[in-house]
Amino acid sequence: MVSIKDIAKLADVSVSTVSRVLNEQEHVSIEKRTRVLQAIKQTGYVPNRAARDMVSKRTTTIGVVMPETFNMFQRQLFSMVAHHLEQFSYYTSFYFSSTDLQGERACLNRLKADRLDGIILLHEIMIPEFQTYLEANAIPTVLATFSRKDWQATSITISEEDAALTAVNHLISLGHRKIGFIGGEKYGFASVRLEGYKRALKDAGIDFDEQLVVQAQTYTMEEGAVATRTLIDRATPFTALFAITDELALGAIRALADRGLSVPDDVSVVGFDDIELASYSVPRLTTIRQPIPEMGQMAVALLYSLLTGSSRTPLSISLPTTFIERESTARLV
Amino acid sequence: MVSIKDIAKLADVSVSTVSRVLNEQEHVSIEKRTRVLQAIKQTGYVPNRAARDMVSKRTTTIGVVMPETFNMFQRQLFSMVAHHLEQFSYYTSFYFSSTDLQGERACLNRLKADRLDGIILLHEIMIPEFQTYLEANAIPTVLATFSRKDWQATSITISEEDAALTAVNHLISLGHRKIGFIGGEKYGFASVRLEGYKRALKDAGIDFDEQLVVQAQTYTMEEGAVATRTLIDRATPFTALFAITDELALGAIRALADRGLSVPDDVSVVGFDDIELASYSVPRLTTIRQPIPEMGQMAVALLYSLLTGSSRTPLSISLPTTFIERESTARLV
DNA sequence: GAAAATATTGAAAACGTTACCATACTTACT
DNA sequence: AGTAAGTATGGTAACGTTTTCAATATTTTC
Q: Best label site of A153, A196, B109, B152, fewest CB within 10 Å?
């Protein structure tokens, strides 16, 4: 494997000069620069990143932490993030943290070993060591899609509760009063969206019914189908469903169809996220659009301002969502 | 940031001893080992990966190369690969190579800089430098989902042509004779699946009609819908469609529905891959299942045998596919 | 035309680890 | 008792870069 010394020898210059050419610094004569460039081209030399990182004390790499079982929304968001990081010529490293504590700890250790310049967290983390480490080492961090009261970090969120409220209000405005809720974990955005659901019901004078709420384990279509079957089997009648992710909603539509219930004729369904699939499903899904491109762009822009030190105080930015009416909801007849 | 020297000082031993504890080597007294472990725990020390990689001449990291716009099949495959690499305690680094040559070159350079121990390619690459680099440096490589005549590398594939043949034969057996084909690029698996389509027609004595073939740019639902509209607008009648990926098929179903055509009553559709969504769509998709878990497992197992030197000769392994009949195909009435 | 400033260059230190070698001490076997 | 073989330990070189410093060469300025 060819090293900087080989290039220096080949171009008959010192390693310092090669290094200067490599890092596009000044103070290199045109003659020597061309010789070095020629040697590099000839050998196909690329500097060893490990060596470079070690001595320069920076990795030009940003860690993006995602759940191992990321859904379409997270997948699209990370695409945007990766794309924008490249614009700022940063490398992107992905870290998948599984849902158990042990997996999260493993993720943190890999992350520590890599001495990253910055971190973007795309999902809530559970172990406190994570936050401790980032704060203790003053590593620029952006929390995307969530925030924490006990963490004074730059974050980018949406107004989850209001968005959920809008979704449920739409169903209510169509005449629905028995509205099922397909949710998830008791913390994080799932719980906040449930609050929005409750508030919409309360505002409309509809009693909250525990029997109409079902919690999914993960945000997959399969779980959405399972949850919907559970709901149907409870025999508490409902004419509409609000699912907290599009995948859950799509799974719900599948399960309803299996029981001979048509969407939106028999049951109206509204999702959340507006993943690509939402506009291609049959029927097309009524949903809340999260501004994925803007979220990705903002997350990177904010991180960049932290990295360059142009901004020191952590900012909390909330982006607007949009209600998208498609074909999965209809007026109650 | 705490280093191995700090730990050595704190535990009152030499750095050599700390290194031995870190790498779980022998020749360390229980007494000193506990002192070192205690110091590590106390400081939260994690060895610097860059330093470790540089001197040890190995990174314990495998690069997984994926297209930037990976589809669900590739997403599921990479999940399996990442999971199995972890089992063998290798790190996984993802490299996204865009479809243009420049993007691929950038991908290669990052990969070179990282001095990976091995590579798994999840999609065909275009620039020859890639292969040159891997071969010149004898980097253990596994080609997953494709192979190359001019590349004597370990590969794991399916019999693309036979699988496509099976899919089209199914349509023919249902009485269809005017079968549309939604394909893609002129190289790689897209072209091979087209061959399977042609062979099936030929075997059944059906003339190949160029008007029934349409090429998508990417394998997304959107492209599937676009392609289908093109096909309909050509006014060459068809009663069935074979799409070379499930996403294309799902997009096709959407476009057909938009034109008032019902699946499978008016048109039968069969896809390829059997992504999760295929069993949740309305209607459920008839498709060819690729053995994703086995492919991921085999890819990693083969790479491991290359890494440990237990196998030197490149193996080409072909895995069987399964035809899955669901609801998107019906007998021609 | 001399002094000052600036550009070009290379030598050597440093980064944080592991690998290798040397030494001191045990233990085991003739 | 004396040698061989092993265990525990530390010192130091090495890895491939960038950074810093010092030395020269060239240009600018008055």
A: B152
Burial status of residue B45 (CB atoms within 10 A of its CB: 0-12, 13-18, 19 or more): buried
Tell me which fold the domain A60-158+292-319 belongs to: Rossmann fold (3.40.50)
Q: How confident is the model at residue B188 (pLDDT cuts 50, 70, 90)?
A: confident
Closest CA to A244 of A264, A268, A215: A215
Q: What is the pLDDT of residues B257-267, one digit of tens each?
A: 999 999 999 99
Whether A54 sits inside 8 A of B59 (CB atoms) is no
Model confidence, pTM: 0.94
C-beta atoms surrounding A177 within 10 Å: 15
What region, left, alpha or beta, does residue A27 occupy, with left being phi > 0 and alpha being psi -120 to 50 degrees?
left
- Grouping H, G, I as helix, E, B as strand and the rest as coil, residue A206 is coil
Q: Where in chain A is the domain with CATH 1.10.260.40?
A: 4-47
Å from A206 to nearest chain B CA? 32
Interface membership of B93 toward A (CB under 8 Å): yes
Instruction: Tell me the C-alpha distance between B137 and B147, whole Å.
Output: 20
Q: Does 3.20.20.70 match the CATH number of domain B59-158+292-319? A: no
Decide if A67 contacts A97 (C-beta within 8 A): yes
Q: pLDDT (tens digit, 9 = 90+) per residue, B214-237? A: 999 999 999 999 999 999 999 999
Q: What is the pLDDT of residues B274-293, one digit of tens each?
A: 999 999 999 999 999 999 99
User: Nearest-CA neighbor of B294 among B124, B156, B142, B123?
Assistant: B156
Chain B residues with CB under 8 Å of A133 CB are 44
CATH number of B160-290: 3.40.50.2300
Tokens of residue B184, six digits: 């893609």
Block residue for tokens 């027609």: B201
Distance of CA B310 to the CA centre of its chain: 25
